[in-house]
Amino acid sequence: MATAATLPSVLAAQTPARLKLRVLETTDLHVNVVPYDYFRDGPDDTVGLAKTASLIKAAQAEAKNSLLFDNGDFLQGSSLGDYIAYKKGLKPGEIHPMLAAMNTLPYLCGTLGNHEFNYGLDFLDNGLAKAEFPMVCANVERVGGAALVDPWRLFEQSFEDEAGQQQVLKIGVIGFVPPQIMQWDKANLEGKIVASDIVNAAHKHLPELLKAGPDLVIALCHSGIAGGERRGMEENAALHLAALDGIDVILTGHQHLVFPGGKAFDGIAGVDNVKGTLHGKPACQPGFWGSHLGLIDLELEKRGERWQIAAFKVEPKPIYERTPDRKIVPKASAEPAVLAAVKADHEATLVYMREPVGKTASPINSFFALVADDPSVQIVAEAQIAYARGLMAQTQWKDLPILSAAAPFKSGGRAGPAFFTDIPAGPIAIKNVADIYLYPNTVQIVKVTGAQVAEWLERSAGIFNRIDPARTAEQPLINPGFPAFNFDVIDGVTYKIDVTQASRYDGDGKLVAPEARRIVDLAFQGKPIDKAAQFLVVTNNYRASGGGNFPGTKTTVVLEAPDLNRDVIVRFILSKGTIEPKADGNWSLAPLPPGVEATFVTSPAAAGKLPEGLKAEALGDGGEGFAKYRLRG
């Protein structure tokens, strides 16, 4: 009888303990708290931590055990963030509204994204001081070796296993940021911090973390997923990081994509885009601006003294869905506590954004900015050239011709069919200027040769797929993986782009087709450009520091101006009172052969707004809320 009585307990002792743990992730929030579009000045059900928070609340209610993490890029990116950085300021002891919102949620830990550094280290330090959860980042340290934040942390957490018993697990968390911050924010960071290769930093700090005896190691990797051979200093290094022993779960971000499921991740060796794994390890990337909540359900099993992942499921959960007839259907409500945390700053941002700065006599939109010269880029060019003339007048470069490089930041793409500039004729406010120039870049001026101007434009022309002149079937014109902010238009020269030719540069800016030339009829003042002639190009700190890997931009900076490109546009409008930006047609696509059908998508709101001279016709529904157009030869 005694033996029989103890049999169940003996069997229980032989059965491994099992524990279910739900890992939740936000990433790339970019100060999108309220579901509101400050540019359109209206509600927006596709963004906002307040919406994501309701998914967090529901996900935690469904699971006995859960942990919440943030994967970086939270301090910059919306008009609310700009208001704090450039109008209100952030003094020591004050709380940033993004942190106020995040503090209403049970974050265990977070990491730094590249945009955390946009406003300098003092701003970052003031912001982090009021976070009620720690930050980790292993590949950034202050000059001299002191930590900016801890490289990793170990958390002891009590969880309930499937038998109802309490289990204490040690959760190791390590963080990473793209080392390119040293280029992108050189003015803020040079001489102050050092950023190292992500994988090398992991090799350095993982042994320390593993020595502390974690049961589970989670990498907060503010870096995207890309294939190919590892060369070091990758911007998107999550896949290489996942190959390291000791890391169990990868939370990724930075690319503003959704993993698993995003088409960009199909066919990459080591990536399972259905199960959501990198080298067999569970991984997630939940979009941007609060569009998704990353969810990884782990089933842990205790084998001996160690817990191991026995099963898992990865699911990015969206806060909305788009119906076939292009309507947005919310799948989440806004959490009142999150809204309340930013109410005063949100209302102050509305006042700030609505302040008038002048008038525009003509509408300004970017509906066709990727296929034709465009007024939303033209106004940037005019403002930048006027600004640069004043700066250069008393310098040794005063006699050099001034060109302007600018890109159509809002032109659809991943952000959807509402992501276009659309300003009606009439009063123009700060919100409209921020709509034209989306990022808080600062002005920089580079000195280049005519040959480098040509290469700059060849790199920019990589946004186009090659159109086969022998095919009569439909061919998509735009490469959706090429970010529009790398489609620089250079004003002050004239040129055509022949999309029937191969792209000279690949998506990373590497020369892959030395014989290819898409830029044709490149001229300055009506004559073929002199390859040896020198020019000044007004651009921004991102491009001048190597962002986008454009030939000739990185080592030729002649002026690092203190002003934001956006503020330069505001001052230009103030000085004019009334502007009338019209595309001057300095560039165009070379005509296509007869019978070739090249198509592109834009907003349905583009109907009836085709630019003069652009030969295109509407084809109807383009999918995912877009409208499709066809270029005509």
Q: Termini distance?
A: 93 Å
Say how many strands there are: 38
Summing up helix and strand content along with how strands pair, one would put the structural category as alpha/beta
The pLDDT mean sits at: 93
Radius of gyration: 26 Å
Characterize the biggest β-sheet.
8 strands, mixed
Taken from the alpha-carbon principal axes, the silhouette is globular
Question: Could you say how many structural domains there are in total?
Answer: 2
Low-pLDDT parts are 1-12
- Shape-level CATH architecture of the largest domain: 4-Layer Sandwich
- State the assembly state of the protein chains: single chain
CATH homologous superfamily annotation of the largest domain: Metallo-dependent phosphatases
What share of residues is helical?
A: 10-25%
Which CATH first-tier class of the largest domain would you pick? Alpha Beta
CATH fold group of the largest domain = Purple Acid Phosphatase, chain A, domain 2
The total of helices stands at: 16
Q: Beta-strand level of the residues, as a percent range?
A: 25-35%
Provide a compact summary of the structure.
With 633 residues, this protein is α/β, with parallel strands linked by helices. 23% of the residues lie in helices and 30% in strands. The protein folds into two domains: 20-346, Metallo-dependent phosphatases (Purple Acid Phosphatase, chain A, domain 2), CATH 3.60.21.10; 355-590, 5'-Nucleotidase, C-terminal domain (5'-nucleotidase,  domain 2), CATH 3.90.780.10.
